[in-house]
Amino acid sequence: MAGPKSPRQELLEEIAADAAETAGYTGRARFSPRTMEAMAKVPREEFVRGGDEDSAYLNLPLPIGYGQTISQPYIVALMTDLLDLGGGERVLEVGTGSGYQTAILAMLARAVFSIEVVEPLARAAAEKLARLGCRNVEVKTGDGAAGWPEKAPFDAIMVTAAAGEGVPPDLVAQLRPGGRMVVPVGKGRWSQNLLLVTKDEAGRVAEKSVLPVAFVPLV
Questions:
Q1: pTM for the complete prediction?
Q2: What is the C-alpha separation between 83 and 140, in angstroms, rounded?
Q3: How far is CA 193 from the centre of its chain?
Q4: Going residue by residue through the chain (219 aa), what tens digit of pLDDT does each one get?
Q5: Whole-angstrom Cα distance, residue 47 to residue 65?
């Protein structure tokens, strides 16, 4: 007889169930094996606040201080999967936060460049990622809406805070032709949509609404 499931396994099954349930919005009834493998391997308990370890494998966002949160695991998996990473990409992440999403991306891409506006969060995330062996990550403190011009262009961009005025133009400019960006857009906490932004080889940009979401604002 099989033993009880671990909290991590229960979370993975819940993510899979949520993917099937939201397929009418996202067009993805299941996430790729690579995405789910990364979700299985990255230890979320390392990225929550002290005292919240018992909640690490609940499918919920959790506060991490400074008005920021660690995102709901299903949303982390969805946003990751939408980038369709094959392993050779250079990825820009706007909003390092705890570093959890950064660690997921680091497993799936060649290099990750992550920007966090809150300096103590950026410093703590960089230290944690280094301790956990994420050698293909660079973290800096700065204005995420401006991107990271010195490292551009990027094959993929992930924004983990809501852009109130629409997709930041500097990020669009730093997306390589053929690239993909996922970004929540909307001013109100309850009037946001997750967008998939694509740029074709001719540089033409298209936006597709994926799912209603609720993120902290991009600051």
A1: 0.95
A2: 22
A3: 15
A4: 567 889 999 999 999 999 999 999 999 999 999 999 999 999 999 999 999 999 999 999 999 999 999 999 999 999 999 999 999 999 999 999 999 999 999 999 999 999 999 999 999 999 999 999 999 999 999 999 999 999 999 999 999 999 988 899 999 999 999 999 999 999 876 689 999 999 999 999 999 999 999 888 887
A5: 12
Q: What are the structure tokens assigned to 33, written together? A: 């094996």
Give the separation between CA 207 and CA 124, rounded to whole angstroms.
34
The beta-carbon contacts of 201-210 under 8 Å, at least 24 apart in sequence, are 201/177, 202/177, 203/177, 205/172, 207/167, 210/25, 210/26, 210/78, 210/82, 210/182
Q: Render pLDDT for 88-125 as a digit per residue (tens, 0 to 9).
A: 999 999 999 999 999 999 999 999 999 999 999 999 99
Domain coordinates in residue numbering, the chain: 7-213
Give the Cα separation of 92 and 115 in Å (integer).
8
Judge contact between 156 and 177, C-beta under 8 A: no
Residues with a catalytic annotation lie at 71
- The CATH class of 7-213 is alpha beta
For the record, the structure tokens of 110 come out as: 């060649």
DSSP string, 68-110: EEEPPHHHHHHHHHHT---S--EEEEE--TTSHHHHHHHHHSS
CA distance 74 to 48: 16
Helix axes 100-108, 33-41, angle to 10 degrees: 130
